[in-house]
Amino acid sequence: MKRVEHIGIAVSDLEAAEALYTRLLQVAPYKHEEVAGEQVNTAFFRVDDTKIELLQSTDPEGVIARFIAKRGAGIHHIAFEVKDIVSEMERLRNEGFHLLSEAPKIGADNKLVCFVHPKDTQGVLIELCQERDSLI
């Protein structure tokens, strides 16, 4: 794993959360994106090398909606950039970690992603992400 790529925060009201984080960080989001496969709308903020992803569910039964219903709004995941997501997934499986998908999925911000089950990581959902452009 190369570095923390971003921190994902589950929110119930993306517009209100954007206003709050714009005031807090003193920057506007640099990107908005719907990720239909994950049933979320996202907004990304960048401060130097740090990125924050706000996630709002587009479906009342979606993962983010269920997360908020169970735990409330707040930190949802920590994403780590990896050089080769397929190799990293294989390494983690060999180490006994449970992954939430068999293969990488298309995620937000031009990434391929895979999640590590939080039961294996002290309750923290870990996302692996690789820039899709780096596959060329």
Automatic annotation (TrEMBL):
Listed InterPro entries: Glyas_Bleomycin-R_OHBP_Dase (IPR029068), MeMalonyl-CoA_epimerase (IPR017515), MMCE/EMCE_epimerase (IPR051785), VOC_core (IPR037523)
Pfam short name (any one): Glyoxalase_4
PROSITE patterns found in the cross-reference section: VOC
Domain VOC intervals: 3-131
CDD domains registered for this protein in UniProt: MMCE (cd07249)
GO molecular function, one term: methylmalonyl-CoA epimerase activity
Name assigned to this protein: Methylmalonyl-CoA/ethylmalonyl-CoA epimerase
